[in-house]
Amino acid sequence: MATSGIPSIFFTSAPLKLDANKPRPCVLTMKAVLQRVLSSSVTVNEQVVSAIGKGILVLAAIGPHDTKKDADSMAAKVLKMKLWPDEDGSNWKKSVQDIEGEVLCVSQFTLFASTKKGNKPDFHGAAKPEMAKELYEYFLSKVRTLYHAERVRDGVFQAMMQVSLVNDGPVTLEIDTAPAKKESAATTPTSSTPASECAN
């Protein structure tokens, strides 16, 4: 995958003077799509390489400025996200750890697609393959360390995969590692805009 031409970013300790008619500068942080599933599998070259039962399918994308800290945060968030009801039927009470479910992680650089210009997606916002693979594998190992390694499966990095799933609900969430925006940020921002607010 081609990921050259990574957009430039900047940081400043002073308030930014922004043109209200122009988008704010963005830092593309690690992001993931979580899907609550009854089952999911990955097939490569007509061979099933990974499969899980009840649990979550995680499509994870690495940004060009992500670090191990982002991967640590994402791994913890994936495992703690409350996607299931409790015994009383109250929704959003239990995580995949709580239900002792399984996790299937798949690298998905296309989450960083930009569609602002024309109809062809632009993937320059994703990390370069070498960096993405290293940090994705670190993220995967972190998920296994924080949970039960035998319950965490993965796809094949950079392979052409067929991902099958039975979405339970359906329940699908997008999460990222961008810090929460403070109330004052709308008028006196002190850092770049979180990825969740970047225009697509």
Automatic annotation (TrEMBL):
Pfam families: Tyr_Deacylase
Protein name: D-aminoacyl-tRNA deacylase
GO cellular component: cytoplasm
Keyword RNA-binding: yes
CDD domains membership: Dtyr_deacylase
Compositional bias annotation for Low complexity: 185-200
UniProt lineage: Eukaryota, Fungi, Dikarya, Ascomycota, Pezizomycotina
Chief subcellular location: cytoplasm
UniProt-annotated location(s): Cytoplasm
Keyword field: Cytoplasm, Hydrolase, RNA-binding, tRNA-binding
Catalysis: reaction(s): glycyl-tRNA(Ala) + H2O = tRNA(Ala) + glycine + H(+); a D-aminoacyl-tRNA + H2O = a tRNA + a D-alpha-amino acid + H(+)
Entry's family note: Belongs to the DTD family.
Gene3D superfamilies found in the cross-reference section: D-tyrosyl-tRNA(Tyr) deacylase (3.50.80.10)
UniProt GO molecular function: D-tyrosyl-tRNA(Tyr) deacylase activity; Gly-tRNA(Ala) deacylase activity; tRNA binding
Region described as Disordered: spans on this chain: 178-200
EC numbers: 3.1.1.96
HAMAP family: Deacylase_Dtd
Presence of the UniProt keyword Kinase in the record: no
